[in-house]
Amino acid sequence: MTIDSRTSRAPTLEMVAAEAGVSRATVSRVVNGSPKVTAEVTAIVNDAIARLNYVPNRVARSLASRRTDVIALIVPESTSTVFADPFFAPVVRGVARALSDTDYTLNLLIASEARPQKTRRYLLGGNVDGALVVSHHAEDHSYVGLGSTLPIVFGGRPINPETFDSYFVDVDNVHSARTATEHLIGLGRRHVATIAGRQDMPAGIDRLNGWRESIDAAGGDPALIEIGDFSQSSGADAMNRLLDRGVPIDGVFVANDQMAAGAVQVLRTRGLSVPGDVAVVGYDDDTFASTLTPPLTTMHQPSADLGATMAELLVRLIAGEEVPRRTIIPTHLIVRGSA
Amino acid sequence: MTIDSRTSRAPTLEMVAAEAGVSRATVSRVVNGSPKVTAEVTAIVNDAIARLNYVPNRVARSLASRRTDVIALIVPESTSTVFADPFFAPVVRGVARALSDTDYTLNLLIASEARPQKTRRYLLGGNVDGALVVSHHAEDHSYVGLGSTLPIVFGGRPINPETFDSYFVDVDNVHSARTATEHLIGLGRRHVATIAGRQDMPAGIDRLNGWRESIDAAGGDPALIEIGDFSQSSGADAMNRLLDRGVPIDGVFVANDQMAAGAVQVLRTRGLSVPGDVAVVGYDDDTFASTLTPPLTTMHQPSADLGATMAELLVRLIAGEEVPRRTIIPTHLIVRGSA
DNA sequence: TTGAAAGCGCTAACAA
DNA sequence: TTGTTAGCGCTTTCAA
Fold first, then answer.
1. CA distance A124 to chain B (A)
2. Do A83 and B92 touch (CB under 8 A)?
3. Residues in Cβ contact with B193 at an 8 Å cutoff, skipping those fewer than 6 apart
């Protein structure tokens, strides 16, 4: 057997077969760990593989077998800001962890927003067995349509879950907000306000609704609402507006930790003690939450679990199993110093 | 031609050819934008494509053409901490930006450290045309070996650049450290110390060497060195050790901003003014550098440019062009309040 | 248990 | 300009 050294290319399965003196089918079986190959033959083949330094061509394999063993996690390019997003990193870690036990390779697909077709074609072109979409923001749902062609699991509630029969996993924002608010009420606070987040995102809407439910149930004032945009400064502004109303307030549920940080700052600036005068509960359990003064009591998002759950569901979906379309991950309250 | 609806699969190029009444080759030409196809025929084919909702199978394409139009950026799984790493995000953004103009799709490959073979096989299995490796840490060089099989561009100086004829782009740490140190000297400081980083990383070694060169040239004291591990607390410790020596010090070049933050804190705690008593220059221009008190004077790393440059080089390498094995990105000093 | 042979869907000479 | 014809490297029935 001669190899043209000028164009020497990666060894193929066929070369291994020749080297081992068996058929290509047998080599294929050995490579894929088929049980019905003599230990003897297996050894011979493995020897040949080692000698030739053979690495299977996955592309050819994919074409023939219609599987890739690759799962994509789609990252909107703009969200490269995503790297700064304290929510995203743990999700990725959870996905990676869940997948490391499997034969799947994880693929963060940076979706160029300027050329969405590039991503679409990659996804639909047989490069992956399934995809994960973390849609932190409402608009990221350009991928819902692919759901009928490619197994996809979404993270975060889709805007219209009924419209599309997509699979998704999310935390129960409504219930979490209730837990937070009820903690405040349980502390004896009678005038519990809320600083809500953007009302065009599920997280913003649902958390406000949770607060509302608790307040209604407890007979509190349902008008103590100010809306922010999830940024720290918007939280500060909202807190100021709340205080400027001149009505008593002794507790605030804030829809995320960033805004909570702003609110606490305002409170202290205006001479109110936290939690003495006003107790504050945040949401997200961001990394900085424990370093604030006082340390922030907040709702912990099990982001890594969310990622892991998404990955597990997708793997089962690919395997053709029946899986629930809607999976809810529990959250829990972390009591620190602010409430 | 009949399609079994139970097993209805994605339309193939062959189906498009039949629908349009042309050969598969012609369809292929249209899909790939070949110039030598009649406008008329092109229109007919495109119609058929639209009617059938045809999306080319990239895997088959890859197998036949030996190209994938995919570039991988390898991310060590542990480095999922990477997402918190202020250096990594801009690099990724730079890569993404450079690639968005091309036909390449960017693929962040999360390399499972528990099963390194998975990544290796993916890379060597024909899934990508080339790879980018950002080796922040010395150990990440398990991929150097692949360089002979797959075009690879490294970010950051390899440990033994002479040993492996790999391609890499890096900032000139030695020169940058000189710039920083000379700024201090230019300010009239006569006793300029340094807090160096880990001496098992190129960044740590080179920055120390740069300081040394400047000090030697200026006739300063070459013994004013303390080593940290790039963490803030290690910077504080190092500063304390420096001050405890009891010798005069009126300037410090610190090998990264994290350590610089720790050093400044210690300085102020011990009643020394910055930059009055001791001027401090950091390195990295981390996002928080401008928010310190006083705002930190530091060396700016053009991380996005580094990423973009890496991507451009790789693309040219894949195209078979000659490219330099060593590319150095310039840095620049940002003068703020600390020196 | 092993081998032979027919594709997987596409590209790329080479002809026409 | 368009079509014909071999493959790309592997998997997978089906026989042996």
1. 7
2. yes
3. B224, B225, B226, B242, B249, B251, B252, B253
Q: Distance from residue B36 (CA) to nucleotide D2 (C1'), in Å? A: 10
Q: How far is Cα A173 from Cα A274, in angstroms, rounded to an integer? A: 25
Q: In the structure, what pLDDT confidence band is assigned to residue A163 with cuts at 50, 70 and 90?
A: very low
Taking an 8 Å cut-off on Cβ atoms, the answer to whether B121 and A77 are in contact is: no
**Nearest nucleotide from residue B64 CA, by C1' atom:** D8
Q: How confident is the model at residue A165 (pLDDT cuts 50, 70, 90)?
A: confident
Residue A6 vs residue A50, higher pLDDT: A50
Distance between CA atoms of residues A65 and A58, nearest Å: 10
Q: Which pLDDT score is estimated for A277?
A: 97
Rounded to a whole number of angstroms, the CA Rg of chain A reads 27
Quick check: A110 and B109 CB within 8 A? no
Residue B335, CB half-sphere, CA atoms under 13 Å: how many?
A: 9
Question: Helices A39-52 and A13-20, interaxial angle, to 10°?
Answer: 120
Low-confidence stretches of chain B (pLDDT < 70) are 1-8, 79-86, 136-141, 157-164
Helices B88-100 + B303-318 axis angle, to 10? 40
Average pLDDT of the segment spanning A189-202 = 94
What pLDDT shows up at residue B79? 57
Return the structure tokens found at A177.
């907000």
The reported pLDDT for the residue numbered A25 is 95
Quick one: average pLDDT of A175-191? 97
Q: Is B122 on the interface with A (CB under 8 A)?
A: yes
CB contacts under 8 A, B 19-58 vs A, are: 55-58
Query: What is the per-residue pLDDT for A29?
Result: 95
pLDDT value, residue A210: 97
Tell me how far the alpha carbon of residue B70 is from its chain's centroid.
18
This prediction's pTM:
0.84
